[in-house]
């Protein structure tokens, strides 16, 4: 007789084989006016390795979302101060929270009422009581899909870096942090030199490999607290918090030298590429837009100055 397959150990073994980094625990916000109910469901999810926050007052949910940023919201339907349905309707009107899945968890048995509740923007209706294992699998499936979707929405498909919209959001965030704190924030614009001729000479797919090569190098060389984004076609934007202008210039020059050493196999043989960069410190400018503009002007000077260089 054959032994049944142990799925968990099989998955663990596959993860080790593929070097997959285990995902950060799913974050779930449970909204229920009854503490005991919230605590029970929280315990079930926590036992399965998820991180859970409970909130008994639906009117507090907005504040919690900002700070806890859950992958999934599990909400009761009937609550005295504000119903789960009203909560869902309000969240669906806010662009920042619009994508977070909402799962109703209620004792409501009437299918028509369940369906009309879903019409207000929730994603699923789970009827209590539910077997703990099924609750866990329903929520983790939602969380997993929400993570995938949000990664697709915020990242560039070719390089895996932050997309234009989100790297700009990163600049805004660090700009205001720079205003409050005393630590310097530097942004840099990086543009690959003569990239049009790389494409023309070696083909567009080879050009794509160069873009991915630079993205990979930046992820390797920069810190996990830095923001790295694809700002446009062959233009990248990085935000370096807690970095002085001098330090940023040094880091970018190291990156520039490392990039110039990479060799690619193209249609006309082996070649390498270079980039130019412009650097600006946020504290010298009134807003994030003018900081980016200053970095762009420095980048222009680097191009004019002969390319393959970093300018402040
Ligand atoms: P410079 O040194 O002045 O920056 O010259 P350049 O040729 O790099 O600049 P230009 O703006 O003339 O050309 C940019 C090229 O980047 C043109 C465009 O076809 C190419 N490009 C933009 N996005 C992609 C992409 O996703 N993949 C590939 N392979 N090429 C791209
Ligand atoms: Mg209730
Ligand atoms: Mg270019
Ligand atoms: Mg360009």
From TrEMBL:
Residues modified to 4-aspartylphosphate: 76
Organism name: Atopomonas hussainii
Cofactor(s) listed: Mg(2+)
Keywords: Phosphoprotein, Two-component regulatory system
Enzyme Commission number(s) from the entry: 2.7.7.65
All residue ranges annotated as the GGDEF domain in the record: 183-312
GO CC, any one term: plasma membrane
Name the UniProt record assigns to this protein: diguanylate cyclase
Domain Response regulatory stretches: 27-143
Signal peptide extent: none
């Amino acid at each position: 007789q054959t032994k049944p397959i142990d799925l968990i150990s099989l998955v663990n073994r596959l993860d080790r084989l593929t070097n997959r980094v285990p995902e950060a625990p799913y974050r779930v916000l449970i909204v229920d006016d009854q503490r005991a109910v919230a605590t029970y469901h929280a315990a079930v999810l926590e036992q399965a390795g998820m991180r859970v926050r409970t909130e008994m007052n639906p009117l507090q949910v907005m504040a919690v979302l900002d700070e806890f940023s859950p992958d999934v919201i599990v909400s009761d339907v009937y609550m005295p101060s504000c119903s789960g349905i009203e909560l869902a309707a309000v969240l669906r009107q806010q662009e920042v929270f619009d994508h977070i899945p909402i799962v109703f968890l209620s004792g409501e048995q009437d299918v028509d009422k369940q369906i009309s509740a879903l019409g207000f923007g929730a994603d699923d209706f789970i009827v209590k009581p539910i077997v703990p294992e099924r609750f866990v699998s329903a929520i983790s499936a939602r969380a997993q899909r929400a993570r995938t979707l949000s990664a697709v929405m915020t990242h560039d498909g070719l390089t895996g870096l932050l997309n234009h919209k989100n790297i700009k959001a990163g600049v805004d965030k660090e700009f205001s942090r720079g205003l409050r704190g005393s630590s310097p924030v530097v942004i840099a614009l990086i543009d690959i030199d003569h990239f049009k001729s790389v494409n023309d000479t070696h083909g567009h797919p080879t050009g794509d490999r160069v873009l991915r090569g630079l993205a990979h190098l930046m992820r390797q060389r920069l810190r996990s607290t830095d923001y790295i984004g694809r700002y446009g076609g062959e233009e990248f934007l990085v935000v370096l918090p807690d970095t002085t202008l001098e330090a940023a210039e040094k880091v970018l020059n190291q990156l520039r030298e490392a990039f110039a050493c990479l060799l690619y196999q193209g249609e006309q043989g082996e070649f390498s590429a270079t980039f130019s960069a412009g650097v600006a410190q946020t504290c010298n400018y009134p807003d994030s837009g003018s900081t980016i503009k200053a970095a762009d002007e420095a980048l222009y000077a680097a191009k004019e100055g002969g390319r393959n260089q970093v300018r402040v």
